Amino acid sequence: MATRFVRGVARTMTTVAAVKTPRLTRAGRYIGTSLLVSGGVALYASHQGSVAAAQKAPSSLDTSTFMAAPVTELSDLEGKPHDMRTKMELMIMRIQSEFCRALEVEEGEGCKFTVDKWRRHNPSEGGGVTCVLQDGKIFEKAGVNITVMTAPLSKELQASMRARGKKLPEDKKFSFFAAGISSVIHPRNPHVPTIHFNYRYFEMQDEDGNNKHWWFGGGTDLTPYYLDEGDVKLFHGVLKSACDRHHPDYYSRFKKWCDDYFFVKFRGERRGVGGIFFDDLEDADPENTFGFVRDCAEAVIPSYLPLVKKHKNDAVSEAERRWQLLRRGRYVEFNLVYDRGTKFGFATPNARIESILMSLPLHARWEYMHQPAPGTPEYKITEVLKNPKDWV
Asked: Which residues of the chain have pLDDT under 50?
């Protein structure tokens, strides 16, 4: 397992001298908003720091293929190469870069992600890297976000953790560490599905360094506007292969969890055709769980990019565009009403609404009592959303 991790990191290591590039700067500075990824959440904090400050002494960690320099100081990462915090941060930085560059290829020459590198109000609490591509010809809005942060755990969040089975004494103060990647891609063509994924690592302990807990969470799910069964089978097949490498029951277990989690109760339907979802995942050996999370994150590109390539140039009618906007409205409903990560964001001090809701599309539509006619392609996808299927 360790060897596979080293190979993964090695694929991404270049030089920190590349930090100061047009891709990474805006008016010569990092100016940004922060993201704590927990089910796709963005937590806000702002900080301005000169790019020159990011250019440190030469490092054995070669990071120029990343979208920006890591959040944690390179000297700290180098000093703790076997620490799970280090491994998770380097992995998500690599995944962010690989996915962003793959999407840029689909957009074509000259279309690049805007990259914001930021620190929290208290720089010692960490920060993140926010990458956004907006109003592209292929992707109407694409966000790929990273957060690495440490902060106090509010009373409200402590209560939420207890409700999930965490044993936290009420007379203690707790702090948490979180490192994660979260992404939502809203394509322009309604025949290209929306994809969402997030993978995160979480630690917490009390003020005395006791009552320690750690776990991984995450998942990848697909929201098509029109049903192409071949697309859905390919998507689920890639995720199943990643799961099967670690446990024969993972795919069926996490596929059901995904269907249940993304259920919009007042609509009686799922947000999409599912994928995998899990939380509070622990193991006697954290390396085993990390390996699983890494493989799932690496499965995003092969599960999604073939669908983009296949449909990005499909002909689109006005009626299909209207249906896409209606379904995006349903996407918004889930994120605002049910999403655990959004709730986590609202309950975290110094949260900023625009960052929390970064996963929302540029455009959406609501119509009173809209129902697709039986026998239409629109009716077909809604029936699948009401009655989840086994795709592989």
From this structure: 1-56
